[in-house]
Known about the structure:
InterPro entries: ATPase_NBD, ROK. Pfam families: ROK. It comes from Methylobacterium currus. This is ROK family protein. This protein is α/β, with parallel strands linked by helices. The chain has two domains: 7-130 and 318-333, ATPase, nucleotide binding domain (Nucleotidyltransferase, domain 5); 139-315, ATPase, nucleotide binding domain (Nucleotidyltransferase, domain 5), CATH 3.30.420.40. It is built from 14 helices and twelve strands. Helix 10 packs across helix 12 (286-299).
Amino acid sequence: xxxxxxxxxxxxxxxxxTRAGLYDLGAARLLxxxxxxxxxxxxxxxxxxxxxxxxxxxxxACLAARLGADAPGYIVVGFPGPVREGGTALRAPTLWxxxxxxxxxxxxxxxxxxxxxxxxxxxxxxxxxxxxxxEHDDACIVTVSSGIGHKVFLDGxxxxxxxxxxxEIGHLRVDFSDEAPLCECGARGHLGALACGRAVPEQAxxxxxxxxxxxxxxxxAASVAGRATRVDSHLVAxxxxxxxxxxxxxxxxxxxxxxxxxxxxxAAVGVERFVIMGGFAQALGAAYLALVGQAAAAxxxxxxxxxxxxxxxxxxxxxxxxxxxxxxxAREWGGAA
Length: 337
């Protein structure tokens, strides 16, 4: 790892991609990064949950080797699910679907690097440290990508509760109808099933059925030969930026429940800064953020809030999780946080 011993090996495990980096605790910067596809239920649907779990740790070891981190002294893992103190993950729907068995992530990582000091936290808890403006900042960090997640930071710390169950807004039920879409966790009507990138195909089919003529006239329909089942998040991002009216309506359908949920968070805890990150949100751009803000304003008590100023994009791009994990390492073990 280097003679100084002041580098941390940091991981950001996502439902689609797993990233790894070496973070210099003294200089407060990433030195090198690596990435690879995550072995998840969506990518490897025929593989068992146990097999996927084992492959994840093989991937972490492989990425560390590519970084030259053979004997790291400090490790932070950002994990996509609720994590209780001690580093056990309670669930991981984006990785392992509806499986309910807890996963001892810290224990498994320690088996690979027995001499390291290890911290395992939720991925949004890790990323959030990269967006705090000062040690005691308040903010709500939201990701809109292959799923939806959030963490509220109060006085510079993520508010997740004593068992790590808090901050999982993607699994808040917002659709109680019988035909509510199925979430990857196995339940129906969750926010993530209605508003993230993976929700696009089903929401597109629903909207096309309500007004087939409008869909047929859209630019998006021409791209998928008139088959709404072929609509995906990449096509939606492209035609949304072109201003296609049907696509704008579809993105409005996706943005509405998220905006309403953010209004609820604001009403409950008073946080006034929402940092939006994630590949799907970033691909849609500023017009998407405006739609989320409109939905939040419609769902909140009007006390003079300016939602256009309360919502912002996280500007660190794909490295946000690694940078946040590095800053958490510096905060935990010394360095320039």
